[in-house]
Predict the structure.
Amino acid sequence: MAKIDNVSGFAKKIFKDKVAISYIIVIALFVIGQIAVPGFASFNHIMTVLQTSFFLGMLCLGQTIVVISGKEGIDLSVGPMLTVGVITSSAILMGRDSNFFYALIAVLVLGFVLGLVNGAGVSYLGIAPLIMTLAWGIVLEGGLLFITDGFPPGRASPLLQMLGGGSIRFNVGGYAVRIPWVILIWVFVIIVVLFLFKKTIIGRILYGIGTNDRASNLLGINTKKIRMFSYGFSGMFSAFSGMILLGYVTNPNLNLGIHYGLPSVAAIVIGGISLAGGAGSYVGAVAGSIILTTLTSLLVTFRFGESGRQIVYGAVLLLLLVLYARQPKKV
Amino acid sequence: MKGTEAKKSLQFKATLRDYTRDPSFPGFVVLVLLIIINASIQPNFFTYSAIKSNFMTFTPLILVSMAQGIIILSGSLDLSVGAAMSLLTCIMASMMTDSIFNVILVVALGIICAIGLGLFNGSIIGFVRLPPLIATFATSAIFFGVALTIMPLPGGYVPSYFYRWYRGDVLGFIPVPIFILLIGIGVWVLFKRTGVYRYIYAVGGNEDGAYSSGIKVANIKVMAFLFAGFFIALAGVSLLLSTAIGDPRAGAAYTLNSVAAVVIGGISLKGGKGSVTGAIIGALILGLLINIIFYLRVSSLYQNFARGMIIIIALSLATIPKLRETSHKIL
């Protein structure tokens, strides 16, 4: 009897935990895919989907930091910032490995500095984050078009191509198994982020200013400055994602970031992060980005036309929101 | 005698001060500046034909910004306005024939459809309590998908007398675009007299407070969307008339422009602060900006860059009254 109680208690706990639900949805999507198209849930295809989720997942990291920092924080410039990363790294690399570290450092620094502009506008000029990041995104897109004349120079180097698109291959019991490098990078990032968020003062300060700005301020934390830096980090991670994306697609393109802005917000909401700030974890956002990428992959597999894809994507997103993004009822 | 004059000047100063503290005041200053700049660049800026041709492009943006303004005042946000406008142009262009009876019927149907879309958005935000930003992003995908289903490529039919009417006058001296705008403003003035208008401000400004004082918060939110639906319908009709074609992507740019216009016009994204007049001013600013960029023959490579920068500058100006407020508090 006690055992059954435990089981139902466990089930209840899972259904209250939004992160757990989001991982259940990931599995459900793969099961649906496998039933409809055998081979959808094969190990290699799962790896492929996870590999393409990485780019959205890195944008979600920045988005998570900004949203947790509170005060209606949101970063809609992640898409253009990703393009900044793509163009900068390709222009510096010019297809040569010897430039790899210059490119990496340039991308990270440039992403951080351009992100700080968002942060300065939000923190010190008091512009609403939604519109500040949107306008700055338009400026970045326009600036890139202007600088490159529409034809971005350079291409990825072999090392970057391996990191972005390559994988480690080995045999397990006669099966050829591959694990993309990108996934290893992602796992490393997740572990570092979780450590920083849960075990160090950085995480506590971030959640603190998101939950109660005034109280944190009274404790002597410079909330404006920290919020500004959170936008800087968002820019940095987005630009980094762009650099790896260049490795995946090899040749730079000005349109790569267009479809990433709002999906990154949708992904973190699906992952259980409240847009009000101060709550949620990156683990959920990872699940959210995998869900959206799997969904897109599934819709392509089902051979829906563009119109059908849009309708189903919107409808499923609404359904997911109804499942667990409903705001509490007034009492 | 002297006393009354001093009193009068004091009163004048007080009203002036009140007006400069109005949230739409910085937008108004920018608007006057832009009109001066525009008049010096565009030949015959103040002539009848120039005003008419300008309003042919301004009218859809002004109307959709009014819609966005109402929704944002009620504390929500609508990222599906652009997709809704596109969908309306597709629906109307796919059904029109040469008979005037049919044209009237189709336009009426378009208005009903727009209000229906508003009802859908309003219900998922008001009754289901989803976060507006992501929920309307999802519905915009659905609307776009439906528009693509109706019309995969731009097309349809608009009778020539109907779109020529848009380039003509009413009563011989009111250009039709301005006439459509006046219909919208007239409906707005009537709406302002109802209690719902005050409830929208109450719900947007302090949702919990409004709930505690017995306002049906969800109903008011839905009503804001229904009412905005009417303005989106007018915007959709004027967009159809100015392009004379149904296009599933025609409205895409209006979503972000409407949000930008509303914020430039001094409406707070948190809701409850600002006025629809501000939204009109903001839309005029954006329209004039696009005009200036066109008449300066700025290369298309610069255009987005310039537009984004000007939005940021306009928003920074909008923070000046706020800075004064805080200094007031310290003293």
Remarks:
- The mean pLDDT of chain A is 89.
